[in-house]
Every structure is written in structure tokens, then in C-alpha cells.
Amino acid sequence: MEVIAEIAQQSHIKKELKRSQRQLFIRRLLTNKQMVSGGLILIFLTALAFIGPLLVPYSPYQMEVMDRLKAPNAIHWLGTDEFGRDLLTRIVYGAKVTMGVGFSVAALSSLFGLVIGLYAGYYRTLDHILMRICDGLMAIPAILLAIALMAALGPNTQNVVTALTIVFTPLIARVIRSAAIVVREQTYIEAMKAQGASQLRIIWMHILPNTISPLVIQATFIFADAIIIEAALSFLGAGVPAPDPSWGNILYDGKMVIFNAWWMTVFPGITIILSVLGLNLLGDGFRDLIDPHTAKGKK
After folding, report:
1. How far is CA 272 from CA 3, 109, 149, 178, 211, in A?
2. What does DSSP assign to residue 79?
3. What sign does the dihedral 211-142-49-111 (CA atoms) show?
4. pLDDT digit string (tens) for 50-89?
5. Is the pTM of this model over 0.70?
6. Domain with 269 in it: what CATH number?
7. Among 21, 127, 227, 299, who pairs with 102 as Cys (CB 3.0-4.6 Å)?
8. pLDDT, tens only, 134-161
């Protein structure tokens, strides 16, 4: 009976410890102003992208030539463009395209970069080959490489995702490789090898979990960079083609009438700034959350 009581007491202590750790994590999360601010901005933009199209009364392709270049008013809250299309509607629909491209690029480049980085960090021979390829791609400025790839692939949304995934995968791969090399040299990895654990098990069960935190942090920054570069490509006419709305090609339409219709550049520009700001705040906040020493260093 005493043994059973002791086991029950230990189980209770473990549950209380887990509950205390959970409460501490939630408290740290809620007091992390950067992460909360970034998360709220991202939630707002996500809602704008997926719920907004159900609320706006117009179609993003609906043209009213008599209402072209109308300033913001009670009917068109953000004004109209050169074809009389409602600017608020186009920004709302453009959010789905732009945020979708950013998320897709962040997810795909994280997936491919994770695989490349893990194998490069574990196998020294592969490391030399894969990292030299990554170095070659990273030697070219991201926007120039994206423009070159879009010139070869052609302007459409899928090709934008493909081009930006190629651009950002080497960056993720190098981050994961660095984390994998550190873990590879740990004593417990040597112990796993001595016990006969397979290389795949070591890579995916023991090295992978230790690379998730830097992967998530880097993915948030790539999300933001992908939004900027997609907007730049669309602004240059090499991204999402008209008449499909994206924040970049709305800016492209507004550059010709910037002095007569300031709202066509100001409002989509604000949405781009908000999205990038929110994602960077979220990434910085998450980094501070998992590494308290970084947060202390900022104070």
C-alpha cells in the first residue's frame, strides 16, 4: 500500500509540475509584447484574406468607368482605381493572393531546406556538395534571382511560389545545417550510434527536434521577405499577372497616377508594411520566448 501511495504521490507531483510549467509558458507568452502584437496583426490580415471577400459588396473585376479614380468616399471607402474598380475590394482579394504566396513560400522552402540541411549537417560528403550549391544561389541577390527565374518560367502565381521557394531554400538549409552540426557532435548522438541506432533514426528522431525552433523563427522572416519580393515582382510586371489582384500589382497600377490618386499607392503600401511588421515582430517575439538570454540582452 505504501508503494502504491508513493507512486500516486509522484504522479500527482508530476502533474502539478507540468501544470506549473504550462502556466509559466502562458504567462511568458502573454507578457511577450512583440509576439502578441505580431500575432494580432497576423490574425487581422489572415481574417482580411479569408473572411474579407465574404463581406465586401463588389467584385475585384467589376469596372465602373464613370467612377474611375474616385477619392475615398462613403460608397468606396478607399476610393477606386483607373478602371473604376473598388480599391478596398481589390486589397481584400489581393491579401488572399499575397498572403497565400508568402505562406506557401515559407512552408515549401522550410520543408526543402529542412531536408537539405539535416542531411548536409549529418553527412560530411553531402555537406560539401549541397552547401556549394546553396552558396552559389545565395551569391545572387534574392530579387535578381527571382526576376531571372520569373523571366524563364513566366508570370503567374504558381511560378512566383516556385521561384521564391528556390530563392529562400538555401537560406533555410544553411540555418538547419548549422543546428544539425551542433547536435551531431553531442555525446548522446555518439551513444546512439554505439547502440546501433540507424542513421535515419538519429537524423529524424534526435537531430530534427533540435532544429525546429530556428526553423520556425527563420520561416516567419522568410514569410515577410516573400511578401516583399512578390510585391516587387508584381510591381515590375513579373509577378501575379493582371487582372488578378495582389498588393504588388495594385501598386503597379497606382504608380502611373500617383499624383492624381494617392490612395492607390498609400493603402496597399500600408497593408504590405503591416504584414511585414507583424511577421517580424512575431519572429522576434518567438525567438525571445525560446531563448530568454536574447530577451535579456535587449534590455
Report:
1. 62, 21, 23, 31, 29
2. -
3. negative
4. 999 999 989 999 998 888 999 999 999 999 999 999 999 9
5. yes
6. 1.10.3720.10
7. 227
8. 999 999 999 999 999 999 998 889 999 9
The helix/strand/coil state of 86 is strand
Q: Write down how long the chain is.
A: 299
Domain ranges, residue 200: 99-292
Q: In which element (H, E) is residue 182 found?
A: helix 157-184
- Any idea what the Cα angle at residue 230 is, between residues 80 and 246, rounded to 5°? 25
Q: One-letter amino acid identity for 263?
A: W
Dihedral of the alpha carbons of 107, 272, 62, 56, in degrees to the nearest 10: 80
Question: Number of structural domains, the chain?
Answer: 1
Record the cell numbers describing residue 64, joined without a space.
Answer: 465602373
Helix (H, G, I), strand (E, B) or coil at 29: helix
Distance CA 246, CA 83 (A): 16
Query: Is 120 part of a structural domain of the chain?
Result: yes
How far is 122 from 115, CA to CA, in rounded Å?
11
C-alpha distances out from residue 120 to 125, 164, 235, Å: 8, 22, 36
> DSSP 3-state assignment of 56?
coil
pLDDT of 24 above 80 = no
In a domain, 4, yes or no: no
The answer to whether the beta carbons of residues 281 and 204 sit under 8 Å apart is no
